[in-house]
Write a sequence for this structure.
């Protein structure tokens, strides 16, 4: 059964720094790896996703790096801002109908 | 505005009582999902539905039940058989059940068992 391991559980970064969150998955027959962002008391929202016909996808300050041979993918947040403080979840497909989510990373950006 | 609504936002239940959480979407999405969120455990899938009148168990379905009589509605009942129901419950929908489509989440219901 597909497992997704996400690290670290919590992360504190200074304003302007780079935040890096990592995920590892086991097996998947469907290539789609999203990251969701969740603010306290709210539902998660899609932040960025990659279909690994490419090894990297960038949207503004957010970048997904994907290593298919290592079965790992990571989220990089450049020039981190206090408004980026949130919980981040990676996810990977399981079967044809479901996503399995990582445990989440609570990111705090200090001003 | 299109989106997903969940009600109530906060819910308190006495032990031994069943309680139903509402989820409604006006996005015309075929697929709907219920997740449970506990601190440090991410989102765990309770039930999902690919189409009206059809639903499947997720990873932690024991003690829960659902129905999908209308495309826009997917209520979740937390029964007295659920041993530890205190959690944050999230409903989501996607245009189709493929894992490659974006899931849109509601604002959640926080259930507390007294």
């Amino acid at each position: 059964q597909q497992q997704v391991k996400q690290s670290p559980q919590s992360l504190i970064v200074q304003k302007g720094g780079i935040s890096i969150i990592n995920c590892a998955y086991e097996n998947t027959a469907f290539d789609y790896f999203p990251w969701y962002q969740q603010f306290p008391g709210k539902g998660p929202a899609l932040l960025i996703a990659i279909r690994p016909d490419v090894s990297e996808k960038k949207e503004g300050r957010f970048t997904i790096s994907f290593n298919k041979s290592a079965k790992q993918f990571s989220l990089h947040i450049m020039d981190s801002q206090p408004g980026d403080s949130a919980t981040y979840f990676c996810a990977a497909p399981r079967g044809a109908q479901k996503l399995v989510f990582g445990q989440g990373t609570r990111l705090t950006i200090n001003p | 505005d299109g989106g997903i609504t969940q009600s109530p936002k906060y819910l308190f239940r006495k032990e031994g009582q069943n309680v139903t959480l509402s989820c409604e979407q006006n996005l015309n999405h075929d697929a709907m999902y219920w997740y449970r969120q506990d601190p440090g455990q991410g989102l765990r899938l309770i039930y999902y539905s690919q189409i009206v009148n059809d639903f499947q168990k997720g990873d932690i379905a024991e003690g829960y039940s659902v129905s999908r009589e209308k495309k826009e509605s997917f209520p979740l009942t937390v029964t007295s058989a659920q041993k530890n129901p205190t959690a944050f419950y999230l409903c989501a929908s996607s245009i189709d059940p493929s894992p490659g489509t974006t899931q849109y989440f509601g604002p959640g219901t926080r259930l507390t068992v007294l």
